[in-house]
Design goal:
By secondary structure, this protein is of the alpha+beta class. Helix content is about 35%, strand content about 25%. It contains four helices and five strands, in the order βααβββαβα. α1 packs across α2.
Length: about 150
């Protein structure tokens, strides 16, 4: 399968939503069409400095990546954060994820970003094998804190 990567287009909505719903299901997130629609609007319109990429193969979308720019004050530079990366199960192993990672790297280089960064679940062994071929795992630990007034 020949894979090509490009930015999302308005006409991708239904196929992108199918892929993003698959991403959410993989991470055992509840079905929520509102979240899918909100995220679609963000990547389609490049809100919050987000960019949506899609991988195409055999005339259909087979993967997606949602990215956003972030400031790195300690370095005085910017970085590109990969929020979501997903390949349709039936298309895994065809190179879509690698192509999406390469495009993220190209985008970062084009804007002189210092890093492309992402997180994944520690038990996501399949993805981690791919990531280990393209990036270096860090020693940093991630924390989440709930907003409170």
């Amino acid at each position: 399968m020949d894979i090509s990567v490009r930015r999302v287009a308005a006409s991708d909505e239904a196929e992108w939503a199918r892929l993003y719903a698959g991403y959410r299901a993989f991470y055992r997130l509840p079905e929520d069409p509102t979240v899918v629609a909100s995220t679609w609007a963000w990547v389609r319109d490049e809100q919050w400095q987000m960019t949506g990429l899609v991988a195409e193969g055999d005339g259909r979308l087979v993967g997606l990546a949602n990215l956003r720019w972030f400031a790195r004050p300690s370095a005085g530079r910017i970085g590109l954060y990969l929020d979501d990366l997903f390949t349709a199960p039936e298309s895994r192993g065809a190179g879509a994820a690698t192509a999406l990672l390469r495009e993220a790297s190209r985008m970062a280089a084009e804007r002189d970003a210092q890093v492309v960064r992402w997180i994944t679940a520690s038990d996501n062994a399949t993805a981690r094998r791919l990531y280990d071929r393209h990036a270096t795992a860090t020693a940093w630990v991630t924390y989440d804190m709930a907003p409170a007034l």
